[in-house]
Design brief:
Elements: H1 3-14, E1 42-46, H2 52-60, E2 63-68, H3 71-83, E3 90-94, E4 107-113, H4 121-127, E5 128-139, H5 155-159, E6 164-171, E7 174-180
Parallel strand pairs: 1-2, 1-4, 2-3, 4-5
Antiparallel strand pairs: 5-7, 6-7
Bound molecules: S-adenosylmethionine (SAM).
Residues 1, 9, 47-49, 52, 68-70, 73, 95-98, 113-115 line the site of S-adenosylmethionine.
Length: 181
Amino acid sequence: MTGEDRRRWDERYADMEPPPIDAVGPPSLFAAHADAFPTTGRALDLACGQGLGAVWLARRGMDVWGVDISAVAVAHARDLAQRSGVADRCRFDVVDLDDGVPEGPPVDVVVCDKFRDRRLDHAILDRLAPGGLLAIVALSEVGAAPGPFRAGPGELTAAFGALGRISSGEGEGYAWLLARG
Ligand SMILES: C[S@@+](CC[C@H](N)C(=O)[O-])C[C@H]1O[C@@H](n2cnc3c(N)ncnc32)[C@H](O)[C@@H]1O
């Protein structure tokens, strides 16, 4: 990612108040499937933003690693984990996913909420432990104008077709998939 893009994300987060604890929760498109997420094990949140989903997983009992390009978002996420009493189960790092998924052990959950980079698909599949859960939401061309960061029709279900689908859909500019390895 260019320095300018990184600065743009930092500025966007610097303009936001640190999120309140009651904003913590699962990716909104999976709220109806919250019980499908485990309460133990390891989770990886790619492009975690301010850590709302990551801290929710930690509050459920998981050990969570959240990564994002924005140092401001990562600082907000660390602060949120501290205020939520789960700092000991959370790690947040500044990582550029243009360089790939950071190395680490297999995980029981991968969350990727409103971030899409097709180059990461294989690494995401490889990273999931047997029976692991993928929760991915992308901007979609379905119900919106085409764009370079938008998933095409059926893209998520095709890319992750090796997993067992729990929930999926697309419309109004979003595509989502919840699936288990
Ligand atoms: C739309 S936000 C979603 C944030 C969070 N997942 C959520 O749902 O609230 C997209 C996120 O992707 C991050 N991002 C963009 N490009 C990235 C990259 N190359 N590597 C890591 N993070 C990136 C941004 O900083 C931003 O936090």
